[in-house]
Amino acid sequence: MQGFTGPAFLDEGDYLYFLSCLADAARVADLAVHAWVLMPEAVQLLVTPSYQSSVAITMQAVSRRYVETFNRRHGRRGAVWGGGYGAAVIEPERYFLLASQAIDHAPVRSRLVADPGSYRWSSYTHHIGLRVDSFIKDHPLYGALGNTPLERYRAYQALGAQPPDEREVDNLMQSTLKGWVLGSAAYCEWAAQTANRRLMPLLLRDRPQKERLRT
């Protein structure tokens, strides 16, 4: 999701309220949130839906509540988000940790901070044990990083010692914008049959909003 006419977050209250909306909506829709980042003009999420409609229900509820309050707080009118959201289905074993790291390091790539740990509005500090985000449901692949919480924190931090490969991140982002599936041939075939969707759209349409990644 991307701000339509400028920043979608203007102060601390905006960030906190968006997270509250996300936590409430995800709980109602049974959507597992694994990683998140809120930047002034963009939102990225890594999620697993329990039902086909979980994502749409969550995003619609968040957008409706947030936009109404944002406009009231700041004396504005009209749209906040630009055109909805993009989504990519990813094969967890190949792409989950890369996607999680890409989201947590997005503020660094966007030159908002030099270190992901110094950015408050992402799940990075949750993943390295400096904060608990109560609405996050840790994915089994994150749990497999270690037998204890401390081992997982250290392993995740070590993964991020070197920023994610830019080409792989670009591939993730482009796939999200275009609604593609990322994974092995077998996984893509399974996803196509399950979702009854075309993997490579015949007509590629420009979708200016930022990415939301989901497994």
UniProtKB/TrEMBL annotation:
Transposase IS200-like domain: from which residue to which, for each copy? 1-106
Q: Which GO terms describe its biological process?
A: DNA transposition
Against InterPro entries, the record matches this protein to: Transposase_17 (IPR002686), Transposase_17_sf (IPR036515)
Q: Listed GO molecular functions?
A: DNA binding; transposase activity
Which branch of life, at top level? Bacteria
Signal peptide range equals none
Its name, as the record gives it, is Transposase
